Amino acid sequence: MDIKEAAAREAVKYVEDGMVVGLGSGSTASMAIKLIGQKIKTEGIMVTGIPTSSASDLLARAMGIKMGDLDDHREIDITIDGADEVDPRLNLVKGLGGALVWEKVVAASTRVEMIVVDDSKVVEYLCQKVPLPVEIIRFARETTARRLASLGCVPKLRIAEDGELYVTDNGNNIIDCRFNRIDDPKSMESRINSIPGVVDNGLFVGVASKVIISNQDGIRILERPVQG
Fold first, then answer.
1. Is 43 a catalytic residue?
2. In this structure, is the dihedral angle defined by the CA atoms of residues 94, 100, 106 and 109, taken in order, positive or negative?
3. Cα–Cα distance between 38 and 41 in angstroms, integer?
């Protein structure tokens, strides 16, 4: 079995009849969506899906999952999503797939945020392997990029496969910010979001409830300690 599929299968075990389920974006999360669709058919359960991107919405509908609107569900029972990096404190970098804003909005309404990754995504510090995606409005892109650079990164406007500027589901652009490392993600998240023109960024701090990590040797699950 593919190690990504193994992580997705473990996460889908937590999906139960009657749940409202956030449906993540990316390759591992897409496997989870397919497995939820299979579970609905084989076990006869009913779930309502809340998408984190137009792509996850289309896939879920194709798999026969009943879709809902976030405004109609104040709390999501569980969201299964991926990540581009996971640090030892279970903070995340997300957004290489371009869906970071929807993902963060859905996560904010979720009781259990479950992240599924293979062990290549586990890092010692954030931005060890990948740049930090920042979604920006189209107006004054270069000005916004200069302000991001003042935080110590090298910003680069994301280009789509067709050679044009990448456009998100919200009609915005993304700047991928290459930091040497981010040691204080909570502070950096706030500093980036205070820049005019920034919609949100791919730092997910204190969001993940569980991280399911798969490798060739099996599965391990990391959990965030419950705050008293």
1. no
2. positive
3. 5
pTM score over 0.85: yes
- What CATH number does the domain located at 132-200 have? 3.30.70.260
Yes or no: is domain 3-123+205-216 CATH 3.40.50.1360? yes
Which residue of the set 5, 16, 75, 103 is catalytic? 103
Give the helix/strand (H/E) hosting 114.
Answer: strand 110-118
The pLDDT tens digits of the residues spanning 66-120 come to 999 999 998 999 999 999 999 999 999 999 999 999 999 999 999 999 999 999 9
Contact criterion met (CB below 8 Å) for 140 and 197: yes
Is the dihedral angle over the CA atoms 6, 9, 13, 15 positive or is it negative? positive
Which strand (E) or helix (H) includes residue 4?
A: helix 3-12
Whether 115 contacts 11, CB under 8 Å: no
- CA of 133: how far to CAs of 71, 92, 112, 155, 173, in Å? 26, 12, 24, 9, 10
